[in-house]
Amino acid sequence: MSGSIEVRGLSRTFHTTVRRPGFAGALRSLVDPERVVKHAVSDITFDVAEGELLALLGPNGAGKSTTIKMLTGILTPTAGEARVAGVVPYRERERNARNIGAVFGQRTQLWWDLPVRESFQILRDIYEVPKAEHAARLAEFDDLLDLSSFWDTRVRHLSLGQRVRCDLAAALLHDPAVVFLDEPTIGMDVVVKEQVREFLRHQVEQRGRTVLLTTHDMTEVERLAERVVLINHGRLVLDGPLEDIRRKFGSTWQVRATLADPHTEVTALRGIAVVGREGPQVVFGPDGPDAPTVHQALKAVIERYEVTDIALDEADLEDVMRAAYVHTEDGR
Ligand SMILES: Nc1ncnc2c1ncn2[C@@H]1O[C@H](COP(=O)(O)OP(=O)(O)OP(=O)(O)O)[C@@H](O)[C@H]1O
């Protein structure tokens, strides 16, 4: 079974009513409600290949969760089509559920009053996982996520970091080909975040799972994703390698080189300007919209000049994304 995700022209509109302000407004809204149409997701198309981890990014309210809800079968699209591991999720919810795992960092899918281990057993029965397979997988997850120190605790008494680790294990116990993660590390401390990222990397690289991840944590994106899809106001505005997005919006890098010969004549390179010079110290920066990435610039400088020392400053991904969000505002 292929674990790919195919999204074609997917759209979701919500019809809501808004309450007018004040008492008189509230009364009027009762008899004549003001209807509002919200285009939460508009005509988005992308693919995720089997065994790929894709980060779905965008500012608050961009439409990320709505997209994930359509792909997990929770919501039906207003238009367009999606296939997850070959199944149309909102038409065949049960079949889709067998192929996917989902973790919503903001809420648990576990039984609140039961010890975690009992939740795992219920899930084993629901998904009809053979006992030995279940035990082996649980041992693997315990190894990677340290679950056994708290898996006899009721879910309601777990800390956030413990609870999400259990949610991750629960979502993967039936060995799904495709995993949806909606802000999985929200509110976790840095150590647990790193543990979860390591776990996810293992699931993609060693187990070949396909992962669609949403997050506002740019360190997470850098550590896990090679490709990102950016949505803003419900529209897909970028789809490509993280490096391309950096190139397009991360225009603030610098390469600082110390030349072996301080009298060397230094000229601009393709897409690279000389932005400062003091004796043997030369600072290069991006020149124009087709400027190379900082790593390409580094290579170009080393190839052209004999240098004794070289350092680089890169715009951090938070800055890059902020610029990308602002530049894509007209996707509205
Ligand atoms: N059930 C609903 N009824 C009405 N509007 C909704 C509903 N669900 C989502 N929306 C609206 O659709 C838009 C997209 O919401 P969504 O939750 O998909 O955004 P998001 O990208 O996941 O945001 P965040 O990063 O804040 O979680 C928002 O404007 C939201 O208010």
TrEMBL record:
It is found in: Cell membrane. InterPro entries: AAA+_ATPase (IPR003593), ABC_transporter-like_ATP-bd (IPR003439), ABC_transporter_ATP-binding (IPR050763), P-loop_NTPase (IPR027417). The keyword Protease does not apply. GO terms for cellular component: plasma membrane. Signal peptide: none annotated. Transmembrane segments: none annotated. It comes from Streptomyces roseirectus. GO terms for molecular function: ATP binding; ATP hydrolysis activity. It is a peripheral membrane protein. Keywords: Antibiotic resistance, ATP-binding, Nucleotide-binding, Transport. This is ATP-binding cassette domain-containing protein. GO terms for biological process: response to antibiotic. It comes from the Bacteria. Residues 18-258 form the ABC transporter domain. The keyword Cell wall biogenesis/degradation does not apply.
